[in-house]
Amino acid sequence: MEKYRIDPSKGIEFGLYTLGDHIPDPHTGERISAQQRLQEIIELSKLADQAGIDFFSVGESHQDYFTTQAHSVVLSAIAQATENIKIASSSTIISTSDPVRVYEDFATIDLISKGRAEIIAGRASRIGLFDLLGYDVRDYEELFEEKFDLLLRINEEEVINWNGEFRAPLKNAKVLPRPKDGSMPIWRAVGGTPASAIKAGYAGVPMFMAHLGGTTSVFKRTIEAYREAARQSGYDPAELPVSTAGFFYAAETSQQALRETHPFINEGMKLTNGQGFPKQLFAQSVDKSSIMNIGSPQQIIEKILYQHEQFGHQRYIGQMDFGGVSFDNLKKNIDIIGTEILPAIKKYTAKN
Amino acid sequence: MKIVALSGSKVGSKTRTAMNYVVKALNEKYSDVEVALIDLAEYDVQFSDGRNYLEYEGDTKYVTQTIMGADAIVIGTPIFQASIPATLKNIFDLLPVNAFRDKVVSMLVTAGTQKHYLIAEQQLKPILAYMKAQIVQSYVFIEEMDFHRKEITNDDVFFRIDRLVEDTVVLTETYAKIREAKEAEYDF
């Protein structure tokens, strides 16, 4: 775990992530400017840092209703604005980027942040960027596998010789600068299915599992499949961190949490995915067995601890800003996390 | 209420002929229903390549977004090689997994032989159910002998289509009311 800058004795890490969505407030129909949204994301990372939150990450989506296409640039601003919080991408679409440039960017962010940067590399759930950036979506799988493999090798080898299909060969190439510790944590982003998880397991890479809705029991199978695949490939699953990522929202009561978050998620999903989030499904999210961490602070604490008991994972990150949630409500959430949720989950998961 | 009448084939005229009558019946009986007829023979729809339906362009974008924007869909389809036509299957492939959630879908089938009667039951309904449609259980099955030179010649077919149209509208209204009442209970 040390290689991934994780100290399990300190308990489960708690983080926040944003997709950088830029969506009108569903109640007013009004949308803040892209400039304001970016400033607020950076401000949010500062508040998260001050509240003692462990991790903050930003994703890239190249389409309407998003504003962090240049996510590494945003992360670089966050690196400068914060002190202790770990910062990462969630995720970097390595398939449509040059791994050399990605590594240069993130190694630089690691140096600016004094060793706090990580890369989470994914395959893209929205695929508009393939056309925009000049790639063929038919190479979806191969592009990812080849480029992710190269990214991992750049991380391990200071001088690299490499040949592949989608990029010019590298001959005795040095990819510089190097991160603070010579290498940096790189995760494989995984959708919720076992089929996707075993690919991370076979490669022996840390897994970042995104989950939209559903129950902890179902996602437990995905995590077990990942660890089993790692074991079969000769890796020790105990050495491989697992992180989960999904919706988060805390309010005084569960009903208030549902009221303050459903219209945003529902309308936001309609705009970005073309379908809303049915109330019937959403109403189940406050239940303890639901993977969505929405509810009162106490309910969320119980859920995160239950998930930790079931998953044995090292980190959970929550998405609470999707769909144009007001900055005031985000600040309130950070406050609840810092004063109630973090102390409780650390207390119960840290080994003393 | 928005209803899409989808004529699912590029081949032949029977399905389109019957769908013309569906549209006529809807317009005459329900002035508040907004009907869009999509005849796939008139559109250049690409094969699904896996992207989100919002990301297609041109005719593909128009067809998928119009269907996704509907409250109900009347699917008209011929039977080819003992199955639904590829053009219609492609529409399903272009749409998301739960595309028909909160939508009513009804079916009208034209076929060259009675032997095809159960194909909608055994091949089309399972797809619609998987995509979360509220299915109008009875469908209209029209044989070759009921058409002559692009006209329906059997009065019974008009009756059956009238009933299909009525069932589609009534069920759409009913499910909408149930949903509204249920959603109001959630109080969020």
What does this protein look like?
Chain A: This is LLM class flavin-dependent oxidoreductase. Chain A: Residues 13-311 form the Luciferase-like domain. Chain A: One of its GO terms (cellular component) is cytosol. The complex is a heterodimer of chains A (352) and B (188). With 352 residues, chain A is α/β, with parallel strands linked by helices. Chain A has one domain: Luciferase-like domain (TIM Barrel). Chain A has helices spanning 34-50, 71-81, 99-112, 128-133, 140-156, 194-203, 216-232, 254-273, 279-283, 297-311, 327-349; strands at 13-18, 55-58, 86-89, 92-93, 117-122, 159-162, 170-174, 186-190, 207-210, 242-250, 293-295, 315-319. In chain A, strand 9, helix 7 and strand 10 form a beta-alpha-beta unit. In chain A, helix 1 (34-50) packs across helix 2 and helix 10 packs across helix 11. The two termini of chain A are 18 Å apart. The model of chain A has no long low-confidence stretch (mean pLDDT 96). Chain B has 188 residues and is of the alpha/beta class. Chain B has one domain: Flavodoxin domain (Rossmann fold), CATH 3.40.50.360. Chain B is built from five helices and eight strands, in the order E-H-E-H-E-H-E-H-E-E-E-E-H. Chain B has helices spanning 14-29, 58-68, 86-94, 119-130, 155-186; strands at residues 2-7, 34-39, 72-78, 104-111, 134-135, 140-143, 147-148, 151-152. In chain B, the strands form two sheets. In chain B, strands 1, 2, 3, 4, 5 and 6 form a six-stranded parallel β-sheet that branches. Chain B has a two-stranded antiparallel ribbon with strand order 7-8. In chain B, helix 1 (14-29) crosses helix 5. The model of chain B has no long low-confidence stretch (mean pLDDT 97). The A-B interface holds A 63, 126-128, 137-138, 140, 255, 258-259, 262, 272-275, 278-280, 282-283 and B 49-55, 68, 96, 98-99, 101-102, 182-183, 186-188.
